[in-house]
Amino acid sequence: MTLSAHRGRWFVIKLGGELLAPGKLAGVAEAIHAFREAGVRVAIVHGGGPQANELTRRLGLEPKQIGGRRVTDEAVLRVMKQALAGEASVDLAAQLRSHGVNVVGLAGVSAGLVDAVKRPPRVITGGPPEPVDLGWVGDVVGVNCALLETLAAAGYVPAISSLSGDAKGNVYNINADTVATRVAAELRAAKLLLVAGVPGVLRDAKDPATRLPRLTPAESDRLIADGVITGGMIPKVQEALGGLAAGIEAVHVCGAGPGQLLAEAAEPGSSGTVFAAA
Questions:
Q1: Per-residue pLDDT at 217 exceeds 70
Q2: What positions are marked as the site Transition state stabilizer (predicted)?
Q3: What are the residue numbers of the active site?
Q4: Residue 70 labeled ligand binder
């Protein structure tokens, strides 16, 4: 299927914080230009894990994750505000602007863009057997699609950091893959592209040649249980599967190198991993 077949539809691109360093977004900008020329609307959701980890350590704290998910106490929440809504958002907008992409950086808390409630304790894959309270971490309960539609209609690309909130003024740190999946589902997106520092889901995390072009839910669950998919890739894969269940037409994990994102969007499984229902 050609890109023009998706005219008027949304592609949601999730960018990991490791991609926001100088010189790493040329391939993403290339793809965004091609998408928009084909009449596709684009929204970005970004993380900021490396930036947050660096700032956390500079403040004398130690980052803590369980099953690839960050534990967020009040001190860490302050760090996330500075790292995600500050450094990561500004660097993303500046880099994409240098490639001619008009990005509007937004926190999920802005104008109720991503509404959330505090997540109750729950068992985490890859964590202990008992339920875990991750602190100031939320679950998405709503997305202000009208704001995203307004920005797209005016020619802008919204870029959302995964800090979300509620009408009482609470702010929650949410995994960026989770936010991207919910945003894509609410927009009825044709594609959710989870862009990472690796070219897809790998059978051997150290060998890009072991990329898996296509995964079903059953295969994904087996690879997690067997310890092939580990760490931060676990929530990414789980959100990809959740995206399929929520009605997103195609969910991909792919790299950000020159041509990679564009090739994967045009020909699923050609340069990344595409998730299929069966």
A1: yes
A2: 14, 236
A3: 14, 17, 49, 177, 236
A4: yes
CATH number for the domain that contains residue 79: 3.40.1160.10
Is 231 labelled a binding residue?
no
20-52 tens-digit pLDDT? 988 899 999 999 999 999 999 999 999 998 998
**Other Cβ atoms closer than 10 A to 81:** 17
Angle, in degrees to the nearest 10, between helices 233-245 and 176-186: 10
| Helix residue spans in the chain (DSSP H) | 26-37, 49-58, 74-80, 89-98, 145-153, 176-186, 217-225, 233-245, 260-266
Residue 86 annotated as binding site: no
Burial of 127 (0-12, 13-18, 19+ CB in 10 A): middle
Band of residue 67 on the pLDDT scale cut at 50, 70, 90 = confident
Contact between 222 and 38 under an 8 Å Cβ cutoff? The reply is no
Residue span of the structural domain in which 169 resides: 3-275
